[in-house]
Design brief:
- By secondary structure, the protein is α/β, with parallel strands linked by helices.
- Helices cover 36% and strands 17% of the residues.
- The longest helix has 19 residues, at 8-26.
């Protein structure tokens, strides 16, 4: 038994290496989980950034097609997409922001700095992140008039995405 003990850590490391190599070779890193696509928005209510009463996420777009953007003041890519979100606002795209891992004061300072494209901002929490299946920030959900998620964008919205999203919302009746 004493002869085997020194080799146990090496055996475990080799086994883990084989496991991770097998997973890495067969896993497409560009595939993002889209568990909410085709499903209704979460029904939970979240407080608003302005201190108003909690608002249900599912009703936050008031029955119109629109975008739900998950962001944080600490998120560099969230600041980068600021001009594109403002372009979407100018084009009339209804948009609700949901903060993630943020403090309300930091969120307001961030919006004052990069611009506030949102009709309202909801203060997210750990439960809302789980309900949305958030993997990082920013993430943007395209929602139809019935409150059903029809598309999900991971990462910052780009100049190329703006006309595509506007067209998508128009096709949904927005």
């Amino acid at each position: 038994m004493r002869r085997v003990l020194p080799f146990i850590p090496i055996i475990v490391l080799v086994a883990l290496g084989v496991l991770f190599a097998g997973y890495g070779l067969h896993h497409d890193p560009t595939v993002q989980p889209n568990a909410l696509i085709g499903k209704p928005l979460p029904t939970m209510a979240l407080p608003t950034l302005d201190g108003g009463p909690p608002v249900r996420i599912a009703g936050s777009l008031n029955g119109r097609p629109g975008l739900i953007n998950v962001f944080g003041s600490w998120c560099g890519p969230c600041a980068i997409e600021g001009p594109q979100l403002m372009a979407l606002k100018r084009a009339g795209a209804p948009m609700v922001g949901v903060t993630w891992m943020d403090k309300p004061g930091d969120t307001q300072a961030f919006l004052d700095r990069v611009g506030d494209p949102f009709q309202r901002v909801l203060v997210g929490n750990d439960d809302s992140a789980v309900e949305f299946g958030i993997t990082g920030a920013p993430e943007t959900f395209v929602v139809d008039a019935r409150g059903r998620v029809v598309d999900k964008r991971v990462g910052p919205i780009t100049d190329v995405d703006v006309p595509v999203l506007i067209q998508r919302l128009k096709a949904l009746g927005g």
